Amino acid sequence: MQTSTGQPVRQGPGFAETVALIAALMGLTALAIDTMLPALPAIGASYALADANELQLVVYAYMIGFGVAQVIYGPLSDVYGRRPLVIIGLAILIVGAIVSALASDFDHLLAARVLQGIGAAAARVIAISIVRDRYAGREMARVMSFTMMVFMVVPVLAPTFGGLLLAAAGWRSIFATMAGLSIAVGLWFYVRMPETLHPEFRRALSVRSILEAARICVTNREAVGYSLAIGLLFAMLMGFIGSAEQILGSDGYHLGTLFPLAFASVAITGGVAAFVNSRLVRAWGMHRLSHGGHIIHFALTIVFFTVAHAWNGLPPLWLFMALMVMMQFFFSIAISNYNALALDPLGEVAGTASSLIGAFTTLVGTVGGALIGQSFDGTVVPLSAGFVAASGVTLLIVVWTERGRLLQPHHQGVVPAVAE
What we know:
Blueprint lengths: L14 H20 L5 H7 L10 H24 L1 H21 L3 H29 L2 H15 L1 H17 L2 H21 L14 H12 L2 H30 L8 H26 L1 H25 L6 H27 L6 H24 L7 H21 L19
Helix pairs in contact: 1-5, 1-6, 1-7, 1-8, 3-4, 3-5, 3-14, 4-5, 4-8, 5-14, 6-11, 6-13, 7-11, 9-14, 10-11, 10-13, 10-14, 10-15, 11-12, 11-13, 12-13, 12-15
């Protein structure tokens, strides 16, 4: 096949490679968070930090940069295409990782982490745009489920990987390794992924155009409602991630070097849920799966809150882990479909839509997660209270979004014609 100028058309990756490449791009985000968790005490000792809760800022500073930058990348990718913005973002991520490895004090480290987040935002938001460029409706949900299934391997392995690097070469080597892996993924993307933005969806670079795309996003009931839902659910995840090392590793259950194993047992549940979702979503639909999963999740958070108080803040480890695993499973079922439901009606402005939704949900999740994480008092009571509040309010928002009609299938989107 040739273009109108006689040049050969670049063939994109097949289904399996597309899933793997999108998962790798998205995985860089999780890698930049989860590999650091075992190293937080070492970072605190290196910079002589007095308050252990202050170490959570290593996670939250990254997420702030990650959230804010998404507003920029999405609209620009609707103008200039997906490829150049991904490449620029990965370059920023690499610089941020290198600067983090060389940071002379804690403030410089936090600034470098913000820079890392700014770079990683391109990979995350544009990866979703690429999926939306090529798929829609239940097929898009299926691709995202497979992608999330591969992507969820990162949180499972990353803490152990980070722990090995920490033991072998110190915490700064973790950032150096992040830079190397980002270079590898960037080269893979550059060689294999062609431009996916449909010519008819390319938008002019103007404030009016961006505002019009934003108007389409914020006036769509499903996009707004499910974005709020994603943000509040994400706050629960960030609350756990930010305080996980303290709860499991150092201050709560004192697992020490076994922390990565405990964290992985929760994280792997998300991958299992994504696989189950990918098998069921075509037959059951996104609404039935996500709403049903969310209702069960909310019930489990009430059990978690009750158990936390019954054991004076620290229930037996086996019971805590069992509840975390069950909650993570149904959380993943709900949020993976909510992402697809929020983006499904916005194909004509996919780049701006994914960036606005991504920025909003990330910032809501980061701020909410920080409120939960910074409330850590040596027990899981603050975490359980945050879970109940966030899951319950989110369920009410979903009821509003669907006008009280939960568990009912809707018309699914249709993928536009694409010349790939």
